C-alpha cells in the first residue's frame, strides 16, 4: 500500500505540472514563454500552456509534506487555498487525502474565478506596477473549468468545496471552522492580507501556512505586517526561490 501511494502521488505531481508532455510556457510580461524549460517547471517559474498548476514540483513536494504531516500528527482542520488558477495544487491536496484514505476533511478553493482584481490608486505600489490584471487572459479560469479539471482525476466529490468571489467578500463569512493547511496564492498585498485576517485565526496549532508568492515584495510585506501585528515569530522556511512556509506553534 505504501509503495502504491508513493507511486500514485509522484505520478500526480508529474501529470499536474505536465513534465511528462513538457508543454511550453505562455508568454507573460516578465517571461517570453519560449519553449519548455525543466528547471523553470520544477521551481514554478513559468505559466504552463496546458498543465493544471504553475506552482512547480518543489512546491507540490512541500504541499505533500505539510498535508501528510498534519494527517500523521492529527492536527485538526481542513485545507484551504486562496487563489487556485486551474486548481492543480488543490487537486493534489485532494489526491493526498484520497491516497491516505481520509474521508472527513474538506479541500476549500477560494478564488474570484475571473482573474486578478484591478489595482487602484490605494493599492500597494508594487501591485500597481505589476498590474497583474492585465494578464487575466492567462490567469482567469472559470469555476466550471476548475471543477472539470477535478473531475478529470475522479477527485470532484463532497470533500471539495468552492468559495467564488473576491476574498474580502467571501472569506470573512466562509463556513470553515478550523484549518490544518492554509495555502496563500493571491499575489497582491490586499489579497494576502484579506486571507490572513479572515483565515489565520482558524489555523490550528501545528498547522501550516504556505505563501506561494513570498518573492513578491507586496505579498511579503503583507505577511510581515500581519505577523508583526500579532507577534507571530514562528520560523519562515524557504521552499524554493519564490515561496516559503511556517508551522503555527500556538
Automatic annotation (TrEMBL):
It comes from the Bacteria. It holds the Pfam family TylF. SUPFAM superfamilies: S-adenosyl-L-methionine-dependent methyltransferases. PANTHER family: MACROCIN O-METHYLTRANSFERASE (PTHR40036). This is Macrocin O-methyltransferase. It comes from Amycolatopsis magusensis. The lineage of its organism: Bacteria, Bacillati, Actinomycetota, Actinomycetes, Pseudonocardiales.
Amino acid at each position: 500500500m505504501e509503495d502504491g501511494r508513493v507511486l500514485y502521488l509522484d505520478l500526480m505531481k508529474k501529470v499536474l505540472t505536465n513534465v511528462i508532455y513538457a508543454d511550453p510556457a505562455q508568454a507573460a510580461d516578465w517571461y517570453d514563454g519560449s519553449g519548455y524549460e525543466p528547471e523553470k517547471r520544477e521551481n514554478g517559474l513559468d505559466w504552463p500552456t496546458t498543465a493544471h498548476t504553475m506552482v512547480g514540483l518543489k512546491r507540490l513536494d512541500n504541499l505533500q509534506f505539510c498535508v501528510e504531516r498534519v494527517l500523521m500528527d492529527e492536527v485538526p482542520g481542513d485545507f484551504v487555498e486562496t487563489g487556485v488558477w486551474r486548481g492543480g495544487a488543490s487537486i493534489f491536496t485532494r489526491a493526498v487525502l484520497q491516497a491516505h484514505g481520509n474521508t472527513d476533511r474538506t479541500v476549500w478553493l477560494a478564488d474570484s474565478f475571473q482573474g486578478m482584481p484591478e489595482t487602484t490608486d490605494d493599492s500597494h505600489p508594487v501591485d500597481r506596477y505589476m498590474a497583474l490584471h492585465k494578464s487575466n487572459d492567462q490567469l482567469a479560469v472559470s469555476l466550471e473549468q476548475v471543477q472539470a479539471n477535478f473531475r478529470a482525476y475522479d477527485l470532484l466529490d463532497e470533500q471539495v468545496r468552492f468559495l467564488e468571489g473576491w476574498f474580502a467578500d467571501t472569506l470573512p463569512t466562509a463556513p470553515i471552522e478550523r484549518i490544518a493547511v492554509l495555502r496563500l496564492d493571491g499575489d497582491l498585498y490586499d489579497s494576502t492580507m484579506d486571507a490572513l485576517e479572515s483565515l489565520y485565526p482558524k489555523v490550528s496549532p501545528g498547522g501550516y501556512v504556505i505563501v506561494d508568492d513570498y518573492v513578491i515584495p507586496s505579498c511579503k510585506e503583507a505577511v510581515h505586517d500581519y505577523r508583526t501585528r500579532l507577534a507571530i515569530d514562528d520560523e519562515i522556511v524557504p521552499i524554493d526561490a519564490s515561496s516559503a512556509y511556517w508551522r503555527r506553534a500556538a
